[in-house]
DNA sequence: TTTCACATTTTAGCAAATCTAAAATGTAAC
DNA sequence: GTTACATTTTAGATTTGCTAAAATGTGAAA
């Protein structure tokens, strides 16, 4: 005894308000036949005739008119509430989750360019090592690495990065770094990747790739976060096997240099995943396209030699 | 971009109001699983999380709480409108349509008894020769004659009537009416039935049935409505071949008499049809049962000898 | 009147939404 | 730990809702 069939009620509301079955059908994106059936269903549910044919069109019975008067308000209120919620959600800006290193060293710096291009947009950047559930955690975009892209409904591969040895200019001031061997004479900083990724190239592998035979490379310092390892390198603590994408700014500003550009490609790629609803939000689609464009540019710089 | 799925919205409204999936399920007469799915559907349609699991139960997210605040009112208003309509319809009383003669001569007089038994009930009696569409014309019950009962969804046969010769006492005052022949010496009133029924027995047939051979029975007066024919008989204009059921009152009060009780059965029966919703209305089922009871009593009086 | 154009209704068949039942999951209390 | 409770998930069955096309009915034009 609670409510009549709501879909039928909605059809009746539209017919009563617009005064025409065809118009109601157009508003609800269905055929007139569907509306006609819903009206009949509602009438039979209430046991009361609400609408009657009148010549070419339809008109309300006295009961239909009275009933409509009572339900237009509530329906308008529901539409209003829906619109309010929709605008609220849209106004909340884009929520972007990415690996901490990517946030601080690749996406973060470039976001200033984005803001110049799209001053009206609002983006919240979240660093997270584990993959979030997009919708459930209120995340619109996720930028991450590896094969976990598969677990998302919508995603695109970005770029495949390479590592190169990099150091602060001060570290090798006065020294001549002409051959790979010279690098192994300097302090080396190691990075221990966590998680289930395919591990990135290590100093051992790099040595092998450039034809240097060292019994065992000693890395005096090792960091679990590549970001802090890079910071350490910037501070002149040694050479780091850095991802090219992650030292963009450092190379541009001269804080880091690459004396010998011998590259090793990472085993997997970065990817961008997004929630279905994200593209509907203001700047949602633009943001994705912008990231993809940045990624193509990065791919050119990161390509293996 | 008008409204979210209304069934899902209804489920959410119930969950939010009752604070429990199970309670909402009970209110809407479905399983908790159905509610759970509807909530998920609404959330995915809005692109926003509205409800979260909290330990043993659920609770609203801040967005869910805000949204609920906006929709409880409209939903309550819809329920209110529904209840108002329901009460209006119920309060309108029972609408009974029947053949004009039945209205004025069988059901009408007995309705006073019904009113004594059910003083709180309200009945509107409508005389109509053609069969109404029950629901479409706002008719709850139809009492009529013949095979058209088939065209109704719900109906019950009532009684099969007989005709007898009747006249006003004054017509034969001082005369001795001992044999059927004596009746044919008096003025006869004929009835011409309209419509598609099997015609009722005529004076010719009655004469044959009682063994009177008359070349051709002359009916000086003929009426198309049996009701007016009976009135004419009451006014002493002649004999009428009257249906026993239709002269109940006249016999009881002595306005008409049956000097020779030789009966002829009608070819078809009376029936009562009703709308599905009629039995739900106040006194609806009681009225049907009362008519059926009256009909059984009538059957006993109308039985062929 | 007949014909035409237009709006709604009806019909049958198909597609999608919705439900149930049962298993799975997750919590809190014992 | 074990249990009891509430919700969620899953697969499958049922119901509902929709479309397309034909039918119906109306008013206006020829």
Verbal overview:
Two copies of one chain form a homodimer. Chain A has 305 residues and is an alpha/beta fold. Chain A has three domains: 86 residues, Arc Repressor Mutant, subunit A (Orthogonal Bundle); 101 residues, D-Maltodextrin-Binding Protein, domain 2, CATH 3.40.190; 104 residues, D-Maltodextrin-Binding Protein, domain 2 (3-Layer(aba) Sandwich), CATH 3.40.190. Helix content of chain A is 42%, strand content 17%. Chain A contains ten helices and twelve strands. In chain A, the strands form three sheets. A five-stranded mixed beta sheet of chain A has the order 4-3-5-12-6, with helices on one face. In chain A, helix 2 crosses helix 3. The longest helix of chain A has 30 residues. The mean pLDDT of chain A is 88. At the A-B interface, helix 1, helix 3 and helix 4 of A face helix 1 and helix 4 of B. Chain A binds a DNA duplex (30 and 30 nucleotides) through helix 3.
């Amino acid at each position: 005894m609670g409510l009549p069939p709501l879909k039928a009620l909605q059809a009746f509301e539209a017919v009563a308000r617009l005064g025409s079955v065809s118009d109601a059908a157009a508003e609800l994106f269905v055929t007139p036949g569907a509306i006609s059936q819903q009206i009949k269903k509602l009438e039979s549910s209430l046991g009361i005739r609400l609408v009657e044919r009148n010549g070419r069109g339809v008109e309300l019975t006295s009961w239909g008119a009275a009933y409509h008067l009572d339900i237009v308000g509530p329906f308008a209120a529901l539409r209003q509430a829906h619109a309010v919620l929709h605008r609220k959600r849209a106004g909340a800006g884009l929520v972007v989750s990415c690996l901490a290193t990517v946030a601080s060293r690749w996406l973060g710096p470039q976001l200033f360019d984005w803001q110049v291009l799209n001053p009206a947009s609002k983006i919240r950047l979240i660093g997270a090592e584990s993959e979030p559930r997009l919708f459930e955690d209120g995340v619109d975009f996720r930028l991450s690495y590896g094969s976990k892209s598969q677990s998302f409904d919508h995603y695109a591969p970005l770029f495949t990065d390479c590592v190169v040895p990099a150091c602060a200019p001060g570290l090798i001031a006065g020294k001549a770094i002409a051959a790979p061997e010279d690098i192994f004479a300097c302090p080396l900083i190691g990075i221990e990747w966590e998680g289930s990724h395919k591990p990135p190239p290590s100093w051992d592998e790099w040595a092998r790739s450039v034809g240097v035979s060292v019994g065992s490379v000693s890395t005096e310092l090792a960091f679990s976060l590549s970001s802090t390892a890079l910071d350490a390198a910037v501070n002149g603590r040694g050479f780091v096997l850095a991802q090219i994408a992650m030292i963009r700014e450092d190379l541009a500003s001269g804080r880091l240099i690459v004396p010998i550009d011998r590259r090793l490609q990472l085993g997997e790629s970065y990817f961008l995943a997004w929630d279905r609803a994200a593209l509907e939000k203001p700047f949602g689609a633009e943001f994705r396209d912008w990231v993809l464009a940045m990624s193509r540019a990065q791919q050119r710089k990161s390509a293996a030699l």
